[in-house]
Design brief:
Radius of gyration: 16 Å
Strand content: under 5%
Order of helices and strands: HH
Structural class: mainly alpha
Largest sheet: none
Distance between the termini: 18 Å
Shape: rod-shaped
């Protein structure tokens, strides 16, 4: 495997999961019953996953660029 490919794969999976969680949280009605799916903060979790995915993708990019310079 190339350098940074595992991090890139993890970032892509996290971005997909974060997008799905964000969409679920955005479409959840604010007056939904707090029991069940509405009790979990889907939008906040999706946003956190997307931020972590961007960090992982930037980290993998820096690692590949450093390896290319050496």
């Amino acid at each position: 495997m190339r350098l940074g490919s595992k991090r890139t794969l993890a970032a892509r999976l996290m971005a997909g999961a974060g997008s799905l969680c964000g969409i679920l949280g955005f479409t959840m009605p604010p007056t939904a019953d707090p029991a069940g799916l509405a009790a979990f903060q889907w939008f906040v979790s999706g946003t956190l996953l997307l931020v972590l995915a961007v960090y992982l993708l930037a980290n993998a990019s820096v690692a590949v660029q450093k390896a290319a310079q050496d």
